[in-house]
Inverse folding.
């Protein structure tokens, strides 16, 4: 999951943030192309950086590891932006569900294919699969930041972090079997996530 959201155009820093977003996208695009062409393990960070016309140190400013270039995708940024737009009257879980639907409806074919491609890498590359667990843990912090901001509470508030962890737990419960199986994500995956979040919203009745 990406760590920060870009600043909207017209606001201070907007041009800088857009440039950073373009650089990040270029690094990821070239990395995925090289993984397709020559394999994940034989592709080096230096090759990715050269293809994107950046230095290796710049690569590591955007992605701490080679595995992160697979795991940190644009879908989460789209979802967080959609979450911030939800009406304040919605409960946190309802807002996450609405944001997920909005993000899914807005996905371009290119982004959808990129998500499918990275999901296959998560299944087939052990290093990426192992790193995915760290990414889920970090995502709880990102979700807590977004939910705390919406609620006017600290992201370190126990209630905020517990709910953020519960939401990510629902997502993990749906996606982990898919990661460990054939790596084929589909719209049904998101329908299952929504169904799981609906159960969380209802208090997880059994």
């Amino acid at each position: 999951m990406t760590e920060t959201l870009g600043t909207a155009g017209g606001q201070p820093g907007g041009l800088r943030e857009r440039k950073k977003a373009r650089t990040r996208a270029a690094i990821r695009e070239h990395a995925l192309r090289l993984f397709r062409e020559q394999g994940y393990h034989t592709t080096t960070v230096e090759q990715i950086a050269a293809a994107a016309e950046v230095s290796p140190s710049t690569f590591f400013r955007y992605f701490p590891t080679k595995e992160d270039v697979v795991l940190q995708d644009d879908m989460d940024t789209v979802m967080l932006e959609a979450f911030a737009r939800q009406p304040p009257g919605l409960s946190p879980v309802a807002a996450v569900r609405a944001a997920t639907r909005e993000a899914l409806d807005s996905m371009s074919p290119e982004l959808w294919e990129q998500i499918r491609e990275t999901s296959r890498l998560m299944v087939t590359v052990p290093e990426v699969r192992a790193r995915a667990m760290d990414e889920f843990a970090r995502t709880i912090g990102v979700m807590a930041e977004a939910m705390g901001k919406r609620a006017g509470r600290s992201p370190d508030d126990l209630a905020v972090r517990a709910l953020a962890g519960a939401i990510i737990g629902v997502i993990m419960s749906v996606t982990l079997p898919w990661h460990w199986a054939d790596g084929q994500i589909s719209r049904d995956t998101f329908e299952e996530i929504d169904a799981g979040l609906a159960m969380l919203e209802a208090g997880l009745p059994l």
Observations:
- Confidence is low (pLDDT under 50) at residues 1-12.
- The radius of gyration is 17 Å.
